[in-house]
Specification:
Helices cover 45% and strands 11% of the residues. It is an alpha+beta fold. It has a three-stranded antiparallel beta sheet with strand order 2-1-3. Strand 1 and strand 2 form a beta hairpin. The structure holds manganese (III) ion.
Length: 204
Amino acid sequence: MNHMTYPFTLEPLPYSYNALEPAISEETLHFHHDKHLQTYVDKLNAALKPFPELHDMTLEDLLAKPLTVPGPEEREIKNNGGGVYNHTLMFRCYKPYGESIPPEGPLMELIQTSFSSFESFMEQLIQASMTVFGSGYGWLVKDIDHLKILHLPNQDNPLSMGLKPLLPVDVWEHAYYLQYQNRRIDYLNSLGPIMNWEYITTLL
Ligand code: MN3
């Protein structure tokens, strides 16, 4: 995704706070980006501070590799590092409401060979995101030469499984509860018009 290293900073949104309405409200986006993501950034920096040997590692390496620190400290770095990575990637995967155009080129070819059709792919992605019990994400990932859909708990990241993250679908309640309360499916069904498939294609 990028090559950020310690100390990590909050990446500004690549669009205005009301750009995703009505799918994601301005209020939800302020909380999600300015409060939740900022907290992950701050906690990641605090967790890394005592370990200078980790300060030159990229966020990708911090998530993908075992760390030479005690177990609880490693868990703290992985959890908050996942929070930074997953949210930063997710916000990049969106674009202003209604500006989404369907995937084309290499991404569309991989979707068709991996899931037979774009419609089937979207159904499976929403199904996987509905399956998350408690907090977590539905994920589109690349595994060598094909795409996979999976779901992971909390802020776990596919990099730790040797997979390339392409699209996180955040189903923590903070992602949707202000607008959709318990209706997770309505939130998931609203996301189509804000998907930035051009950006996701650059991750292949
Ligand atoms: Mn979130």
